[in-house]
From TrEMBL:
It comes from the Eukaryota. Residues 1-60 are annotated as: Disordered. Residues 1-18 have a biased composition (Polar residues). One of its GO terms (cellular component) is Cul4-RING E3 ubiquitin ligase complex. Keywords: Repeat, WD repeat. Residues 132-512 form the DDB1- and CUL4-associated factor 12 beta-propeller domain. WD repeats lie at residues 239-272. Belongs to the WD repeat DCAF12 family. SMART domains: WD40. Transmembrane segments: none annotated. This is DDB1- and CUL4-associated factor 12-like protein 1 isoform X2. It comes from Cricetulus griseus. The gene is LOC100764386. Gene3D superfamilies: YVTN repeat-like/Quinoprotein amine dehydrogenase. SUPFAM superfamilies: WD40 repeat-like.
Length: 512
């Protein structure tokens, strides 16, 4: 885990002991008008306060002090010439803060005193987000015979955890391609009548502090929680939970998660560290993989639609931390909004404008809107307006569908079923374009062509290809089921595999 370097602010004592340069404030004040108030010493002190905590006045501070003294001397002479007069005070303008101390302090705290980037550096980071996609270059990763990467998350600067259709949970080192498999948790009472899982692991999510990871168990109906960074098993939600595969997971806080299932239900889980720490520590010394078995705090069913009541499978979840609300998409073509507290309370349900294959969902905190991916469109929902007030975007990728979505600031990344990545600027309401230079002495300018990154061929099982498809057909692009950014390192991990269900294969790539 990377830790942020923080510097302690200088102590007041150190500031008081810093020698001061002799300035105009050390001179004796000139003769002043009888009714005029104020002094150069006081104004010099106010100018130094406006400049900040720096002990040495910078160029802007010295100029402001000199201007203040000249104005005061001029008004004093006018007072002596014209006699007593009451001068109206001009509104004081805020002093410009251009010292190095204020720049560093603003970079650490942000413009409003909160952690973040402000001013020029924030603009620079936004510009980098716009320009990063056109600079990315692919390096394919070898995953062996694994089948279809469905979910992924960065664990640190070089490791990504992934879940596959063949029910494998593993960590891949993006520098060495080394793969480490993670043992799956088993139900307390295994269902012997159930055959090998054909669903796989569709969701991998980290809690906000990146101390816990939620995913599926050996039984894809169960919720498994692992501890980070050790990946030790913590608990398994296999009691009175879902009756079908888990498709989506979202964390509400560091200890509360919600899972969405193919059975049309949402389950709210609470992880209590005190109930398993002692047991895990004792059995860990003995070398035994022991974990707790938990049940959900609340289970709520998605309302049945009148148009397609039998297809209310929960396919994707996205949480709004600002509003403490959870968005859910079901395959019957509806978006549902829930209030997440100690239980789940449904707020509303909306019919989506494009209701075929709604399989992915994300939330944009900066613009406070949800984005839903369907067979050929991405729809935007601004619930503050109560309607869809941003035109949807069309992927136009041969009807293969939008398979993965992510958003950073106002740029949304779209992974398609045709092996390509697209980038859409929500504010400008247009796709990012390729840039090209008209000559060696000109800067690259937008060319009018949509920026599209096409992923490599990956690996495909040739036996499946010959058995199920016509010989000579070689164009089987990979569906990009998952992608995730490592923004501090400016890297993008992309995973997927053949779109056809009858083909066995995988794709993994590092774009940097």
């Amino acid at each position: 885990m990377q830790q942020a370097n923080t510097e302690a602010p200088p102590s007041p004592t150190a500031q008081e002991e810093t020698p001061q340069l002799a300035g105009p404030s050390d001179r004796s004040p000139p003769t002043m008008a009888p009714l005029q108030t104020g002094s150069r010493k006081r104004k010099a002190a106010e100018a130094e306060e406006g400049a900040g905590s720096s002990s040495l006045p910078g160029p802007s501070t010295a100029v402001a002090m000199a201007m203040a003294m000249e104005m005061e001397m001029a008004t004093a002479e006018a007072g002596q010439a014209e006699g007593p007069m009451l001068l109206a005070k001009r509104p004081r303008r805020p002093m410009a803060r251009s010292s190095l101390v204020h720049y560093l302090k603003g970079r650490a705290l942000g413009a409003d005193g909160h952690p973040g980037l402000g001013g020029f550096e924030g603009d620079l980071r936004s510009y980098g987000v716009l320009r990063l996609p056109e600079l990315l270059r692919e390096r394919q990763l070898s995953l062996g015979p694994l089948n279809k990467v469905f979910a992924s998350q960065w664990l640190n600067a070089r490791q990504v955890v992934c879940g596959t259709k063949c029910n494998t949970l593993f960590v891949v080192d993006v520098k060495t391609d080394h793969i480490m498999r993670i043992p799956l948790m088993r139900d307390r009472v295994p269902d012997l009548s159930r055959g090998p899982p054909s669903c796989g692991i569709h969701a991998v999510e980290l809690n906000p502090s990146k101390t816990l990871m939620a995913t599926g168990g050996e039984n894809p109906n169960s919720l498994a929680i692992y501890q980070l960074p050790t990946l030790d098993p913590v608990c398994l939600g296999d009691c009175q939970g879902h009756r079908d595969w888990i498709f989506a997971i979202a964390w509400m806080s560091d200890t509360v998660a919600v899972s969405g299932s193919r059975d049309g239900t949402l389950a709210l889980w609470r992880v209590d560290p005190d109930m398993f720490n002692g047991s895990i520590a004792w059995h860990k010394d003995a070398g035994l993989p022991v974990y707790a078995h938990i049940r959900p705090r609340d289970v709520e069913a998605i309302p049945k639609a009148t148009t397609n009541p039998g297809n209310r499978k929960v396919r994707a979840l996205a949480f709004s931390n600002r509003n403490q609300e959870l968005g859910a998409v079901s395959l019957d073509g509806y978006f549902h909004l829930w209030k997440a507290r100690s239980n789940l309370s449904r707020l509303l349900s909306l019919r989506l404008p494009y209701c075929r294959e709604n399989v992915c969902l994300t939330y944009c905190e900066d613009l406070a809107l949800y984005a839903v991916g369907s067979q050929s469109h991405v729809s935007f929902l601004d619930l503050r307006q109560g309607q869809q007030n941003i035109p949807p975007l069309c992927s136009r990728e041969g009807g293969t569908g939008v398979r993965s979505l992510s958003v950073h600031q106002h740029i949304i990344t779209v992974g398609t079923g045709h092996g390509s990545l697209l980038f859409y600027d929500i504010r400008a309401q247009k796709f990012l374009e390729e840039r090209s230079a008209t000559g060696p002495d000109f800067f690259p300018a937008p060319s009018g062509r949509k920026l599209k990154l096409t992923c490599g061929s990956g690996w495909i099982n040739q036996d499946d290809l010959l058995e199920n498809y016509v010989a000579g057909v070689e164009d089987f692009p990979n569906a990009l089921y998952t992608h995730c950014y490592n923004w501090p390192e400016m890297k993008l991990f992309v995973g997927g595999g053949p779109l056809a269900s009858g083909l066995h294969g995988n794709y993994a790539g590092l774009w940097s």
